[in-house]
Amino acid sequence: MPASVVSFWLPAAAIFVVAAVLRFAWVSDIEFKTDERWTFERVVAARAGEAWPRFGMPTSQNANNPGMSVWVFIVLGWVTGVETPTDLARACQWTNVLAILGLLAFTRRCVPPETRAVWLWAAALAAVNPVVVLLHRKIWPPSVCPLILVGVLVGYWHRDRRWGAALWGAGVMIVAQISLAGLFLAAGMAGWAALADRRGVRWRGWVLGSAVGGAPLVPWALTVYTDVIGRPTGQTKFGNIFTLNYWVRWFTEPFGLSVKYSLEDDFDDFLRYPLVGEQPTYLMAVVHAALIVAAVYVVVAGMARAWPNRTRLGDWLTGTDRRTWVALGAVMGGFGLALTVTTLPIHRHYMLLTFPFMHVWLAAVALTDRRPGWFGAARGQALLLVILSLQVVATAGFLGYIHTNQRTIRGDYGTPYAAQVQLGLPPR
Known about the structure:
The protein is mainly α and 428 residues long. 65% of the residues lie in helices and 1% in strands.
């Protein structure tokens, strides 16, 4: 077997195994609040013979989600024989383990050798990131999008072919019907392609794919205008544009710095863990402090290295691999701009639709530091290994904290499902 194949698939296999372990661990500890219960009940009803819902659950903007946001779970229920909430959670987790596997296969099959290390590191970071793992374990519409996003990536990568452009168009419209933020992803990717690679796109294939993939959206679109315009929520604020929240999250979440939103008032308690006997070790505090230092270093040092190369950022970041540069720009720039100009607040779960590009960005920036470093590797590689290791510890610590504390978490997580069943605690 060629050495290049072994050197790729050995770490790839390790990435896949770690991704599976972290997503499948303690399935009974899943979040199970109003949204998750609503979805599970619709799956059970559909399996019992009831008609599929026409629309999904209501959004914060006074409009129902498109029907596909619940149909995807009904399909998962039928395929896997769902009977309990943990069955449905396991099905969702499988889609995300397969998404990591699909990303690894894409990296080996489609990415040129000079950029393959960037994508392999990105897959590793996505596999262990605490926020990604948290969201990949949920019964929630955005949480089942990553596998479809791998298909969107394949199509966008091959947008110069009819099948690729059609796959991109159809896939991104399916994502948009599962999570409405996908509408802005679709707009951002198309707009970026028109600016950066207009002649390299088979636009007829894209139109056809978009029309086919978006056809089920029509009944929803006929009702949404009245629902949203007639009952405004006040969430659209011009000032939201200037928060730049999309890019703030872009520069922090790849480092795994966002589990505080899930724990909220229990975050300080989490930082004390793990406990040895009754004594806190504060390992989680040390790990998070180290991740903050790493995030500041990567961003600041990366900007310093980028400045002398500002007229040729694409070559500096991705070398001769223009496809990676354009795809990264479409998500970091196109999607970000499309979301920001809506004046809507940028919710954390919207960032799940960037999969895997926040991690591609982090890996690409870090790997531009080729100075001799530690462990016999270049400094950028060594830094990524440190970040990866810290995130493994942080994710394991987060999952362990939830498993150990079978009570209502004083944050967005609420009460783990196991505690609801075994102790009769309320969801929140």
